[in-house]
Write the structure tokens for this entry.
Amino acid sequence: MRNPWRGLAGLPREIWILFTANLVNRAGMMVLPMLIVYLTRQLGFSAARAGFIFAAFGITAIVIGPLAGRLSDRVGPLVLMRASLLLSGLIILFYPFARSYRSVVAVTVLWALASEIFRPASLAAITDVARPEQRKAAFAVHRLAINLGMSIGPAIGGFLATASFGAMFVVDGVTTIIAGIILSTATWRETKHAPSESSRWSDGVLAPRFLTFLFGVFLVGIVFFQHVGALPLFLVKNLGLSTAFYGLMFSINTLMVVVLEVPINAAMAHWKNRDSMALACLLFAVGFGSLAFVSTAKGVLVTTVIWTFGEIFLFPSLSAHIGDVAPPAQRGVYMGAQSMAMSSAFALGPWLGTAMLGRYGPAIAWPLMFAIGVTAAAIVALAMPPGPAPAAAAAAGS
């Protein structure tokens, strides 16, 4: 049986440079997960004001996605990634000097602007340097760095916050700047591989079929983000489980992603992106929808495994597909559109799930998520072309 890890050796060195920068950045990312705690405990803001400040970050992320993508196409993704890390690191270092409500809102918006321009640029950069048959594995490696880092940063941040919020800002800011220096000093080739011939069906980011596809992405995002929305509320309020169990569930999810996502996506390089994305949507639908019938901790863990496989299949295939269909000169715009769709789902999904759970209970909330997930699967399957897989297309064109 072919070793799925073997193909990673052929990934461009730029993928590993970005992996290192991402790992350093995310391992030091601790301010954002602890932001609400800082705003309420250290600055004494009300929960409503702290929530608005956090929402301001999310709204800015939605707006900046497509704009950052267009800017990436104009100046180049590497320039934008460097600027994002260096500027956001400096802003984090100066964040504690903002004390009034208005100044905190202003610096939060600036922070979101600086940090969120990184996402579309990084996705466009990966698409530029990776061949079509490498993209699933390349995006899986990209997410591996993020997940590894996020398994470290928030945990350290929690300990630092108990001793000194100032130390938390210093560590986060400095590691972000170090990540920017890594990208600034590394040699990077500006290579742009052409879109997959089998997938070049979109005549623009506003083409009806591409917009339909993004709507399907938005819907599956709503279901996925229930893991930070309705799910923790359901575990504690409806099942009477502890917050420690939610942490355990989250650890299992992260461990599965870290261990399995790269080899699975390397082994699935020959799969059509349409098939893996539709399967992912169905796994989200089943994983969250079946919570309507779950009443034990063991049952929750089974559903977690199901929707985690959906996560493993979805995100590398999503980015790989958009990389395939985007014209080389517009990859930033297309990745920015993807970022906007997922940011919008993050803004709406947790609110919708918790509102439905609170008002109608799990018997309605979770079947609704099942229906949304199945609808998303149908939409992405219909909106995506049924052509050959990227690896097959590349082989045919060589």
